[in-house]
Amino acid sequence: MRTSLAHRLGRLSAVALRVVVVLATVWLVAAVALGVVSLPADLDALADDTLGGTGEAPEMQVGGWQVSNGTGPDGTELNRTALEYRIHAYVNAERAERGLSNLSFATGLRPVARYHSADMANRSYFGHVGPAGETLSDRYRRFDYRCLVLADGFRVVTGGENVLMTYYGKRIDTSRGYERYETTDALARGIVSGWMNSTDHRENLLADYWRREAIGVAIDTENGRTEVYATQNFC
Description:
The chain has 235 residues and is of the alpha+beta class. Helices cover 25% and strands 34% of the residues.
């Protein structure tokens, strides 16, 4: 029997209907096909100007979890912050290609995304609900992040989330064949392509009512494998 590594991803939207009833719907897919999309050469120009620099400490505490940079099997460093910004640039490239507005990078929302990725990595689960029942809404409240976005003229959206887990520097099995991400750019492109090749995640990523997003990455290197957890939160 052949054993292979594959992507896992999930998407969640929390919507408050008429600001009274909160609905939460979760989509979980065991594996996704990754495709290469045609993107502009100058990706960095599509990243929001308010991103700021990437010169932060390599390790930090987020919601009780320590998150840090990681290394690939060959010892090369994978910078978590640079990866987050690169994912953000690819997201905006996908939106711009379809005539949608760029999302700004919400630094105040990033702790929510980083916390969830670190929580999944540290507690070895994958999804939108933690082992103790913590939901997307709980995480927004944990970091006191308030989101109210008018959608479709009458709905108020209170947040959204896409997640994905993949590997850096290891061969993974997709419907397109085997893939291996060995650079930050290739990994970022693969993560966004994974979301874009899933109908529900694509719908979340391309929703015209979102105005900002945050990307949070956690990297877990163990037994020669570098697992990468990515969370995309919207407002």
